[in-house]
């Protein structure tokens, strides 16, 4: 099959062969657009006023050209429509989506561009503008239709063949053809041919998409340093090229540099604040980095952006409620009370918004219980706990996220034994799920609030620094303070044992040091073999036994 050289692409018959959808909340504009399209030769034109009708129409009808206003009043915007149509695959690759707007603000353009509209039309629109802009896109659509048709069918080898044959015959569209060819090779896992295409393009001209694709292959081949170097250079030259930020953050995460990855995503969200999935990624990364202030800002933004997005989820509301709960814990002043109040509000709104989800009320109450406890309202916390205990008691099918959250709440309210029993049951059920097991391990290691956890981790870092610099007594004192907060923490206990053993090597007459070592090791008597610190625990036990002989 060859790509046809359709000479009628700019004629009125080309307009007439296509199906159009005009989306605008003002009837006069819809009628005006229909009149202009008809004067260009279009015949099959549907007019709708809002996102719901637009998505509904595309669900049951093929549409070749969508002309959508960005600002549709209350509710979903043109960006949300484009996002949903792409997500649900209701548009073919050959379909054209034109964003119509009277607001060409940077925030709007950056947000809409995340979902790759084919063009922007700025109001007011006249016949000449529409015919010229749309006519050019229709001509390209017609020329590339056979390739896009095979890609829609996921017949990638045939699409590759068509691209190769079209490159010398369609020089006008060479850039599109080369980009598509490289992407198709990548989809098939043929990285060698894919990178050859990108290299050929880059030898002729430094194009952002080619540099990004080249970096993507470097990342796939685990060449992280070179990928990061290329992506940093790309961002410096093109600071609005958002895909580069996402790939750079991914590269840094793979190098175990989560703090640097977070910094990159923060820069990206400053440039384009309306990309929901990137805000979620930032929020999760900030949480992992214990940067709860950034996490709460990103979760707030995620909840707001999700209100009209196809990607909306109660998980964002729960995450925001949990983060606000952590930040308010132990702060009974004005700021803490405000954060707690916001957390209650977020959880209440979640229950209303997702009222068809029966488990959400239970999840919300688990968090509410911790909020009360963190604000030193013990009676209210206990009252909520008494209310939810029957629904969470055994026997029942354990649900990892709900039960982890419940165990966290039990720890906070002083029911440590009950929490440990629950986590043991959870570990038994999810023995083959490393993600769940790691979360259980983390909760058992640090069954304390956020602020105490951060303080203990800071002390741990300080203790390690003191030990490495030879200040053994200072290191022992620091680890003692940390263990007062989290007495059963494996790494802290083992760090303390190492310090004491080092002290004993310098003063073998001081047998009390060996007794202290045994004391700290006894805290870890029940440490499971699967725990990350288990081998170190066994090694230090053996060393202590040898020292006491």
UniProtKB/TrEMBL annotation:
TPR repeats lie at residues 456-489. Pfam families: Response_reg, TPR_19. Coiled coil: none annotated. Transmembrane segments: none annotated. The modification 4-aspartylphosphate is found at residue 69. InterPro entries: CheY-like_superfamily, Sig_transdc_resp-reg_receiver, ST_Response_Regulator, TPR-like_helical_dom_sf, TPR_rpt. One of its GO terms (biological process) is phosphorelay signal transduction system. Residues 19-138 form the Response regulatory domain. PANTHER family: TWO-COMPONENT RESPONSE REGULATOR (PTHR43228), TWO-COMPONENT RESPONSE REGULATOR ARR22 (PTHR43228:SF1). This is Tetratricopeptide repeat protein.
């Amino acid at each position: 099959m060859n790509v046809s050289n359709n000479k009628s692409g700019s004629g009125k018959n080309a307009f007439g062969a296509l199906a159009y959808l005009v989306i605008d909340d003002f009837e006069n504009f819809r009628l005006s657009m229909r009149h202009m399209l008809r004067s260009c030769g279009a015949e099959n034109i549907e007019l709708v006023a809002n996102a719901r009708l637009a998505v509904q129409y595309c669900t049951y009808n093929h549409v070749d050209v969508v002309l959508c206003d960005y600002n549709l009043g209350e509710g979903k915007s043109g960006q949300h429509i484009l996002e949903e149509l792409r997500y649900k695959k209701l548009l073919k690759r050959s379909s054209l989506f034109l964003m119509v707007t009277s607001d060409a603000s940077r925030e709007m353009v950056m947000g809409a561009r995340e979902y790759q509209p084919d063009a922007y039309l700025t109001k007011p629109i006249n016949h000449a503008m529409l015919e010229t802009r749309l006519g050019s896109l229709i001509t390209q659509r017609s020329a590339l239709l056979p390739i896009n048709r095979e890609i829609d069918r996921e017949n990638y080898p045939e699409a590759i063949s068509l691209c190769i044959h079209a490159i010398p015959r369609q020089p006008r569209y060479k850039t599109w053809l080369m980009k598509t060819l490289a992407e198709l090779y990548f989809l098939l896992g043929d990285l060698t041919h894919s990178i050859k295409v990108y290299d050929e393009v880059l030898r002729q001209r430094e194009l952002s998409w080619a540099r990004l694709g080249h970096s993507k292959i470097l990342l796939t081949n685990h060449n992280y340093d070179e990928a990061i170097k290329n992506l940093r250079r790309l961002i410096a030259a093109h600071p609005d090229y958002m895909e580069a930020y996402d790939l750079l953050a991914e590269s840094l995460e793979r190098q175990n540099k989560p703090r640097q990855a977070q910094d990159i995503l923060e820069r990206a969200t400053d440039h384009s604040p309306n990309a929901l999935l990137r805000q979620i990624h930032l929020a999760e990364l900030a949480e992992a980095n214990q940067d709860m202030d950034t996490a709460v800002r990103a979760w707030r933004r995620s909840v707001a952006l999700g209100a009209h997005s196809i990607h909306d989820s109660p998980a964002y509301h729960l995450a925001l409620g949990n983060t606000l709960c952590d930040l308010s814990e132990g702060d009974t002043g004005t700021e803490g009370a405000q954060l707690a109040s916001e957390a209650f509000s977020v959880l209440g709104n979640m229950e209303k918004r997702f009222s068809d989800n029966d488990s959400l009320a239970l999840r919300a109450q688990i968090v509410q219980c911790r909020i009360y406890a963190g604000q030193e309202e013990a009676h209210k916390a206990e009252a909520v706990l008494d209310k939810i205990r029957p629904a969470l008691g055994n026997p029942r099918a354990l649900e990892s996220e709900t039960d982890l959250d419940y165990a966290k709440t039990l720890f906070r309210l002083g029911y440590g034994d009950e929490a440990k029993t629950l986590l043991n049951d959870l570990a038994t059920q999810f023995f083959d799920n490393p993600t769940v097991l790691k979360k259980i391990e983390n909760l058992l290691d640090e069954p304390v609030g956020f602020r105490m956890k951060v303080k203990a981790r800071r002390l741990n870092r300080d203790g390690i620094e003191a030990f490495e610099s030879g200040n053994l007594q200072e290191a022992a004192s620091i680890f003692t303070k940390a263990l007062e907060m989290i007495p059963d923490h494996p790494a802290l206990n083992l760090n303390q044992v190492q310090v004491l053993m080092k002290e004993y090597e310098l003063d073998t007459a001081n047998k009390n040091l060996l007794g202290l070592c045994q004391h700290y090791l006894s805290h870890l008597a029940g440490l499971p073999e699967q725990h990350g610190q288990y081998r170190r625990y066994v090694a230090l036990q053996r060393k202590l036994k040898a020292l006491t002989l």
